[in-house]
Specification:
Blueprint (H helix, E strand, L loop, with lengths): L5 H13 L17 E5 L5 E8 L2 E7 L5 H7 L4 E3 L8 E3 H7 L13 H13 L13 H14 L4 E6 L1 H16 L4 E7 L5 E2 H6 L6 E6 L14 E2 L3 E6 L2 E4 L3 H18 L3 H6 L8
Parallel strand pairs: 3-6, 6-7, 7-9, 9-11
Antiparallel strand pairs: 1-2, 2-3, 4-5, 8-10, 11-12
Helix pairs in contact: 3-6
InterPro entries: AB_hydrolase_fold, Fungal_lipase-type, Sec_MonoDiacylglyc_Lipase
Protein name: Lipase
Organism: Veronia pacifica
Length: 284
């Protein structure tokens, strides 16, 4: 597995944070002004942004839970078999539902010249096929339609998401890879719950391209809270105490965090803590 570079981590993290506000100017992050597609949920809220450039691959940003109905959907911890050509196991029903909900017209859309150009551009590159974005298609079908046209442009797809958006990114990646082999370049998620059962972990074919970022004792990363039933996939990168750890088991993570909390009053006495704060004096 290739290492995730620092600039890549920062880029995807910033995009995930920027996906939550309604106003989003993708050109600020290096994407071409006419290379964008927003995908909405059943309420008309944007939950996925597909961004690309003439000289760069596409980045698909999945927004995490942002309303009460999303959080309630996350509680549906039942198995759902992925409808793929080759068996891919069972995933969390709630996350599967979010991907296969019907898309509605954008709710109070914030129209900019960038969004209008994006729609026009995607219409141009979709002329060669009968599949295009339309209200009523499922969220995943719209992602798949974008993948089909981006593939014609020679683009690969990088999927990233925060929280439940990370789970949707992982599940979508498996389905897209089966539909269009080789189209997925990388998956990077932040604070992601476990997306599926052991069968999904066993058959997941993108484990060498998947990076799951966890921060300290983020409790969402331990959900749905059913040990040995729900499983994570890919490489886990844990950020803790200004260090980076890889593939640390969950019990070890919890133990180290608790030990850190207990030792914190003593640790603040160490000289490295004082040296690390030397820049404070430059502002006084």
């Amino acid at each position: 597995m290739k290492r995730l570079k620092r600039y890549q981590y920062e880029h995807y993290a910033i995009l995930c944070r920027a996906s939550y506000p309604k106003v989003f100017d993708h050109t600020e992050y290096g994407f071409d002004k006419h290379c964008r597609r927003d995908i909405t949920d059943r309420f008309g809220n944007t939950i996925i942004r597909v961004l690309w450039g003439e000289k760069r691959d596409a980045v698909v940003v999945f927004k995490g839970s942002h309303c009460l109905s999303d959080w309630l959907t996350n509680l549906i911890c039942l198995p759902k078999k992925l409808p793929t050509e080759h068996y891919a196991g069972h995933v969390h029903l709630g996350f599967y539902f979010q991907l296969h909900q019907r898309s509605q017209k954008a709710k109070n859309p914030y129209h900019t010249r960038y969004q209008r150009l994006s729609d026009n551009h995607l219409a141009e590159i979709a002329q060669a096929s009968d599949v295009c974005h339309s209200e009523g298609d499922t969220v995943y079908h719209q992602i798949e339609a974008c993948a089909k046209e981006l593939r014609k442009l020679g683009k690969k797809m990088i999927l990233t998401g925060h929280s439940s958006g990370g789970c949707m990114a992982v599940i979508s990646a498996e389905m897209l890879e089966q539909k269009y082999p080789g189209i997925i370049k990388r998956i990077v998620t932040f604070g992601q719950p476990a997306p599926g059962f052991w069968s999904f972990k066993k058959h997941y074919q993108l484990k060498d391209k998947t990076y799951r970022i966890c921060c300290d004792v983020d409790m969402v990363t331990f959900l749905p809270g059913l040990p040995f039933i729900y499983w994570h996939v890919g490489k886990m990168i844990w950020l803790h105490n200004n260090r980076i750890y890889q593939d640390i088991p969950s019990p070890v993570r919890i133990f180290r965090v608790l030990a850190s909390w207990l030792m914190r009053p003593i640790a603040y006495h160490f000289m490295d803590k004082y040296i690390r704060r030397k820049d404070y004096f430059d502002h006084h």
